[in-house]
Amino acid sequence: MAKKKASPSDVKKYTSSVLKSGSKGPAVGYLQEQLNQNGAKLSIDEDYGSNTKNAVKAYQKKQKLTTDGIAGKNTWGALSGKKNATADKAKRKKDEDDQRDPKQRDEKEADARSAGQCTINVRVICRTSRRGMRPVQGANVKIGKAKKRTRTNGNASLQVRPGRYKAEVTKRGYRLDSDNKGFDIRVSRGSLDVCIEMVADRK
Hints:
Elements: H1 8-15, H2 26-36, H3 50-62, H4 73-79, H5 86-100, H6 102-114, E1 118-127, E2 133-135, E3 140-143, E4 146-149, E5 155-160, E6 163-170, E7 174-176, E8 182-187, E9 191-200
Parallel strand pairs: 1-9
Antiparallel strand pairs: 1-2, 1-5, 3-4, 3-6, 6-8, 7-9
Helix pairs in contact: 1-2, 5-6
């Protein structure tokens, strides 16, 4: 028998709950479903046991949340795609403002130059058809020791000192078009725009 889909009112009730070890019921089952959609492999038994706790902790670590194994407001917010933590929300808003305002972005790059750093503007895209492209959100971009995740528009800005670096771009379910997640990049001064194409894995 197919499991009945949770109604919007049920979802609202579930996601306002604080779930932890020992919790049981439909809210736990819904949490397990959401975790499975994000890479976990849990049995939907509506029992918050050690496997569910470990899956919550793994998801929290991935999302850079407090890794306590308790599904509260921030964890539910991340699972439902909402901006949750105050600091994270402020940072995302600032990034969006920079993207909309070229002058502000230029000022940011000038500040980086004055500090002896260069700005690397990375755009990650994925081919959807022979002619179509779409941005890749949530890709992990690493250049030297600098790390960022791409925003909804596929962009990420990193600041590094001039030099030659090993660059990596990774995301679950995707790979670089070159079949190699690493490549070299050389930065001299000012800013550098880089566009990286990824390919969705076919299962």
